Amino acid sequence: MIGQAIQRVDGPLKVAGRAAYAYEHWEAGQPLYGFIVGATIGKGRIIGIDTEDAEGAPGVRMVMTHLNAPEQGIRDESIPFEYWRAQPVLTGPDVHYYGEPVALVVAETFEQARAAAELIEVEYAGGRGRFAFAEHEGEAYVPKTVNAGLPTDTSVGDFDAGFAGAAVKIDQLYTTPYEFSMPIEPNACLVAPRDEDLIVYVSSQIVDAAQASIANTLRIDPARIHVFSPFVGGGFGSKLGIHSETILAALAARELDHPVKVAMTRQQIFQLIGMRSTSSQRVRLGAERDGRLAAIAHDVTMHTNPDVEYAEQTAATSRSLYAAPHRLTSHRLTPLDLPRGTDVRAPGEEPGLLAVESAMDELADTLGMDPVELRIRNEPTLDPERGVPYSDRHLVECLREGASRFGWEQRPTTPASRREGRWLVGYGMAVAIRVHLQGPAAARVRLEADGTAVVQTDMTDIGTGTYTILTQVSAAGLGLSADRVRIELGRSDNPTSWGSGGSWGAANSSTAVHRACAALREKLLAEAHDDARSALRGLDPADAVFSDGDVRIGGASEPLSELVARHHPDGVAAEGETRFMGDEPNYTNYSIHTYGAHFAEVGVDADTAEIRLRRMLGVFSVGRLLNPRTARSQLIGGMIWGVGAALEEEAVVDPRSGAFVNRDLAQYLVPVNADIPDVEAVVLDGYDDKANVLGAKGIGELGICGSGAAVANAVFNATGVRVRDFPITLEKLLPGLPAMDT
């Protein structure tokens, strides 16, 4: 069952419209509706707020501001992870960034709440805000650590000496813009009070974090918060933690003793959820004439909110990728009065590889060397910074397989040399690397007396296929068909996990379910061994096979349902778990990653500089596949996101107010069907026994890693124009295009 490309088990619910998302639960009855009012300045203080007209508007039941909001908990930085901390709102008159909530209007309908919100008059005393990254980059400071607790800076050998002595040098600056997750489902929450408890239906990637954060904010026992998040319409990092709509809904529901529903508009999401920080990345490569790197440095400066520090691990990308004896990486943060930075799909690797893999392409061009061969020549045998072996590294195989399948030998060796009519045609490639993480996760598997299984965990399915892969793992572990398994996800009453994020969700939850099934098998076999009524009595449990609903040892067999019913008429359960990777020796003794190689072909209109992706291929090494169908979907989705990072996605800040100017999907561009023609993902057979007992690793974010750089390098190969300020847009490319022959 594991490794089969079965269809999504939740598919019928979704296509029938019966998979309830956060805004769609009606168990609590008719709710009231909340609408958030955001600040119209980026820095300053509220000196007056008039809510009288709003309070008298039709249907309005409450207007909450900092003047009447309940007291809340504070962000406790002793809690190690941001997403479990309190997230208070409406706590005072100070405005920290544009769009910050200054009021919540609750009314009987959404339209009434929205209309009344327009009637609130707020008077501000504006302050002097810092909004422009380039103007304040010199104010950058050194954070203690970066995301995931990684070291801020690293140094191996003597970079300055190694770089100075190199025969060929690349020293370039690459910049990346603010980017947003933009899942289809907006951030939304419905809170229903029940006596002293709160029932919270929220779009959340980590249920345990949501429960803890709400409880810490409201200063109540977490056991009184019951979180439900059975279906999530995409997250990509934006729903790892809860946000103001959830806290405001909870506060209002408690005050009014009535269910309250709050959803952000798409424009509010741009201001209230957080984003990938803009970055300035200096990449220095020193190599010999044969292409072997002597020195590599990756220095990153990015924005942070002054009150909620976030340091994306962008330079960490370079720490395990290529061999070089002299190495240097660093991270610096520039405080700006903008929303906080946050995890956006493949934090660190996506922007970091966009820069490093562009620099490697520049080195290949300078050397006159095939970019694939350059990367193969710099393949390390040990992790070049940690000095430990790789658990399972097949990057070279990805490169060779990808080059063969793509027809890389037909690549134009000279930039701007291939034309088809008015189109300039180019090929590009880049590699992918993504660290494999493991976090704590627990799952309960229960066998009913009829031989069916129920799997329970607070793990979430954010559209990636969790329901399906856990069905496969539990069916395989107990020898059942998929239709004899029921998966219950996204409930805080279930065993806790780190949910969906960081590409750890599938491997963590599947390993926990696998171990729970093993514990159940052991228990049932021990009971059968000593049971005079069992056909398996006295037989060696080590020879047992669970298959087709039966348990067989040699020539003897017994239905699984009879074993359960005889000893456990009310059913029997067992739990399995994974631990934090810091507690697992393999994560100390080995460098554990996933890998890939991207290849892209583009056409560039020589008159207009329009870029058209023609085809794209990714070849990946991810250990064991749990489901090829859902894996392919994940990888292709990531590759398409990389196209957006290279060519389209850019949030623009108004330097006067700190507002995002293009805060809707008409102006913040993401790839659509017409932008994406032929995209294919291929996964090599594999099994990484150092990652976990299943040999499987996370794939959700690998597809985006390096894919943008492959597209950018193809644009250079087509035009001879190197754009280092992403995304690559018409005005950056057009002035350098070669003249067409008349």
Automatic annotation (TrEMBL):
Domain Aldehyde oxidase/xanthine dehydrogenase a/b hammerhead per the UniProt entry, residue ranges? 16-128
Cross-referenced Gene3D superfamilies? Aldehyde oxidase/xanthine dehydrogenase, a/b hammerhead (3.90.1170.50), Aldehyde oxidase/xanthine dehydrogenase, molybdopterin binding domain (3.30.365.10)
| InterPro entries on file | Ald_Oxase/Xan_DH_a/b, Ald_Oxase/Xan_DH_a/b_sf, Ald_Oxase/xanthine_DH-like, AldOxase/xan_DH_MoCoBD1, AldOxase/xan_DH_MoCoBD2, AldOxase/xan_DH_Mopterin-bd_sf
| Family annotation (PANTHER family) | ALDEHYDE OXIDOREDUCTASE MOLYBDENUM-BINDING SUBUNIT PAOC, XANTHINE DEHYDROGENASE
What is this protein's name? Xanthine dehydrogenase family protein molybdopterin-binding subunit
Give the organism, scientific name.
Answer: Streptomyces yatensis
Give the organism's phylogenetic lineage: Bacteria, Bacillati, Actinomycetota, Actinomycetes, Kitasatosporales
